[in-house]
Hints:
Elements: H1 9-17, E1 22-26, E2 45-46, E3 49-50, H2 51-54, H3 57-62, H4 64-80, H5 85-96, E4 100-104, H6 110-113, E5 121-123, E6 126-133, E7 141-142, H7 176-181, H8 185-191, E8 212-216, H9 225-236, E9 242-246, H10 257-264, E10 268-273, H11 279-282, E11 290-293, H12 296-303
Parallel strand pairs: 1-4, 1-9, 4-5, 9-10, 10-11
Antiparallel strand pairs: 2-3, 6-7, 6-8
Helix pairs in contact: 5-12
The structure holds ligand BJW and zinc ion (ZN).
Organism: Coleophoma crateriformis
Keywords: Metal-binding, NAD, Transferase, Zinc
Region (Disordered): 151-201
Amino acid sequence: ASQGPSSDIEAFRTLLKGSKRVLALCGAGLSASSGLSTFRGAGGMWRNHDATVLATPEAFAEDPGLVWLFYSYRRHKALQAEPNPAHYALAELARRMPEFWCLSQNVDGLSTRAAHPSAQLKLLHGSLFDIKCFNERCGYIERDNFNDPVHPSLAITSEEDPRMDAAGTTNETSDSSAGAQNGRNSSKRSSTDQTIPTSQLPHCPSCRTGLLRPGVVWFGEALPVNTISEISNFIARGPIDLIMVIGTTATVYPAAGYVDVARRKGAKVAVFNVDGADLGSATGLGKEDFLFVGDAAETLPSALK
Length: 305
Ligand code: BJW
Ligand code: ZN
């Protein structure tokens, strides 16, 4: 036990108070208590598709209608959701600590809506609300498109549209009587394979031939180059006191690599995660580090007080 990370919140607050240059690496768990799904583990499936398989240029090229329905659903859910106390606590920390930067892998817009100062919020994986041309040579991009639906063909027909309910993908394992009760099962099966013909999907207003796509970073794609260079410059400017790793499995690179980068710049690591089991080893926590197991919406506001 003496080797493991600390969960002493007073010791963490003391460390934070004495810190000047601080990073947070945030992931889907930050928005979990706002009702948004994570990628891995429970909730990481949509219509029997693994979310990480849909988040690829190959999946979009293969079935753009299916991938757009996934993202249209995610836009809808994110717009319905509200920032939670963890988003607000981070935004508040940013206001009182000018050299605290939040590196977020999330695309849901909730940190922005919690009024996190934008210069201190780096969106590593883009935004659900940027729309760009799938033809990379075109370069068209529209920012902050909050239309729901983004295009008439991508309307979410009801709050609990069965074809899109993440919970609905537990079809095979769910209790059939529960399914019958809410009347979802039959419609779910009949609409599971629905997609949208390419001709009906939104096309680029600039080149007119390319399909539009969400402005997120898919596997195999480069992260936004300006964002990456800003972060590199921040890191190069001097030692880092602390990196908080919040609601992420820290398995996707290059984002996850910032934990080790910060550590090499002297940072202590503080993990905030509902699942304490593997995170300690994933991030290589030592006895100088911190691990707070629980809902980030509860642990973070109290730690950042
Ligand atoms: C709670 C909670 C609560 C729950 N409170 N906690 C080695 C080195 C470098 C790269 C690679 C490499 N090996 C392979 C690669 C390539 C690849 C990669 O990393 N693959 C890994 C799987 C190994 N990386 C890439 O392809 C990246 N690009 C790249 O490398 O480009 C190279 C290049 C250079 C130049 C030119 C061209 C190319 C791009 C990665 C993009 C990732 N995109 C996605 C989708 C974004 C769009 C969308 O949202 O749909 O990003 S994938 C998905 O994973 C999404 C997330 O941001 C990301 C991370 O997931 P996250 O946030 O950690 O979620 P989960 O579900 O994994 O974890 C949730 C956590 O929360 C859990 O721990 C829970 O316990 C916890 N939790 N509730 C607190 N209430
Ligand atoms: Zn175009």
